[in-house]
TrEMBL record:
UniProt lineage: Eukaryota, Sar, Stramenopiles, Ochrophyta, PX clade
Protein name: aspartate carbamoyltransferase
Keyword Zinc-finger: no
Similarity annotation: Belongs to the aspartate/ornithine carbamoyltransferase superfamily. ATCase family.
Described purpose of this protein according to its UniProt entry: Catalyzes the condensation of carbamoyl phosphate and aspartate to form carbamoyl aspartate and inorganic phosphate, the committed step in the de novo pyrimidine nucleotide biosynthesis pathway.
Originating species: Tribonema minus
EC number(s) stated in the UniProt entry for this protein: 2.1.3.2
UniProt keyword terms in alphabetical order: Pyrimidine biosynthesis, Transferase
Record domain Aspartate/ornithine carbamoyltransferase carbamoyl-P binding: where: 32-169
C-alpha cells in the first residue's frame, strides 16, 4: 500500500525520494534542494558535463542549447558569485534571465513565498532561490512546477556551492579519496560548509572541523557525516595543529549577519587568519579555498601564492552551474 502523504507535503515527500544518477534522464525537470540527493555516480556525471562546459567556454564562449529558455533568480539575500554565475551560466548557453529580489517583488506587499514561486513558474523554465530562512527551499517546492535550485537557505544548505567546491578539489588534486581536508571558521552558521561536509562524506577522506567553541559544526551535520561511515571526522579549535597535514584548507568568514551581539562578532571574526606566514607552515601543494566573500580571514598578500585557488573556484562555479542548468533542462 502506498504511504499516505498529506497533499501539501506530497511535493516535499517526492523531492526527498529524488536521487540523481549517471543517467541524464534522472536530472531533467528535477529540483536541487540538498546535497543528500547526490551520490558518487551522479557527481561523476555532473563533473563530466562540467568539464565539457569548461572546454566549451574556453573554445567558443558558449552555445545556444538553452535558447528560448528563461531562468528566474529570486534572491532575498545579497549575492555576487552565486547570482552572477547562475546568470552567466544561463546566458552562455543561449538562455535569458529574469531577476527578482526582496525590494522588487510583491513580498514587500505581503505576498507569500509560495505565491511568488507560482508566479515565476508561469513565466520561467527554472528558478534559483536564495532566502534567509532555513528550509525555505523545501517550502518553495510545494509551489513549484519547474526545476528549482536552492541557492542558499539561511544557515541550512548551499548545494551548488558544495558541488563546485568538490569539483575544484578534484580539479586541483586529481581526487578527494585519502585527502586531508580542513574546514576552518564559522562552521555553525556557514551553509556552504554544512553542504560541503555532507558531500565530502561520500569519500574516504579525513575531515578536520576547526572552529572556536561558539562556532562549532552543528551536531546534525556531524551525525550525517559520520553515519556515512567513509570519512573520519575530528573537531577542535587548534588550527596550528592540523595545518601542516592539510591537503585542502577551506576557510570561511564569520557571518556577521547571523549575530545579534556585535561585540561577540568582533571577538570571533578574526580568530583564524591565513597570512603568508601561515602558508609557510602548510604543504607546498596544499589547496587554499574560500567560498567568498572574505572579510580579512585570508590576507590579500596570499593571492599570488599558487596554492590560492579561490579565483579558480569562482570560475568553476560558472561551469558547474552551466552543467546543472543543461542537465535540469534536458540539454546536457
Amino acid at each position: 500500500m502506498e504511504k499516505y502523504v498529506p497533499a501539501p507535503a506530497r511535493a516535499v515527500f517526492n523531492l526527498l525520494q529524488t536521487n540523481f544518477t549517471a543517467d541524464a534522464a534522472s536530472w531533467e525537470g528535477k529540483c536541487i534542494i540538498s546535497v543528500k540527493q547526490f551520490g558518487l555516480e551522479s557527481l561523476a556525471k555532473l563533473f563530466e558535463v562540467a568539464d565539457e562546459m569548461k572546454k566549451l567556454v574556453k573554445e567558443s564562449g558558449g552555445d545556444q542549447r538553452l535558447q528560448g529558455r528563461l531562468l528566474a533568480t529570486l534572491f532575498f539575500e545579497n549575492s555576487t558569485r552565486t547570482c552572477c554565475s547562475l546568470q552567466a551560466a544561463m546566458l552562455r548557453l543561449g538562455g535569458s534571465v529574469v531577476s527578482v529580489n526582496e525590494t522588487t517583488s510583491s513580498v514587500k506587499k505581503g505576498e507569500t513565498l509560495q505565491d511568488t514561486i507560482a508566479c515565476l513558474c508561469s513565466y520561467c523554465d527554472v528558478v534559483a532561490l536564495r532566502h534567509p530562512q532555513q528550509g525555505a527551499a523545501v517550502q518553495a517546492v510545494t509551489a513549484t512546477r519547474r526545476p528549482l535550485i536552492n541557492a542558499g537557505d539561511g544557515v541550512g544548505e548551499h548545494p551548488t556551492q558544495a558541488i563546485l567546491d568538490v569539483y575544484t578539489m578534484v580539479s586541483e588534486l586529481g581526487g578527494v579519496e585519502g585527502k586531508v581536508i580542513t574546514l576552518v571558521g564559522d562552521l555553525k552558521n556557514g551553509r556552504t560548509v554544512h553542504s560541503l561536509a555532507r558531500l565530502l562524506a561520500l569519500y574516504a577522506c579525513e575531515l578536520h572541523f576547526v572552529a572556536p567553541p561558539a562556532l562549532r559544526m552543528p551536531e546534525d551535520v556531524v551525525r550525517d557525516v559520520t553515519a556515512r561511515g567513509r570519512a573520519t571526522v575530528t573537531q577542535s579549535d587548534a588550527f596550528d595543529a592540523v595545518l601542516p597535514r592539510a591537503d585542502v584548507l577551506y576557510v570561511t568568514r564569520v557571518q556577521k549577519e547571523r549575530f545579534e551581539d556585535a561585540a561577540e562578532y568582533e571577538a570571533l571574526r578574526l580568530v583564524y587568519r591565513v597570512t603568508p606566514e601561515v602558508l609557510a607552515r602548510a604543504k607546498r601543494d596544499m589547496v587554499l579555498m574560500h567560498p567568498l566573500p572574505r572579510v580579512g580571514e585570508i590576507a590579500e598578500d596570499c593571492d599570488d601564492d599558487p596554492r590560492a585557488a579561490y579565483v579558480r573556484q569562482m570560475e568553476n562555479g560558472m561551469v558547474v552551474r552551466m552543467a546543472l542548468l543543461a542537465l535540469l533542462l534536458g540539454k546536457a
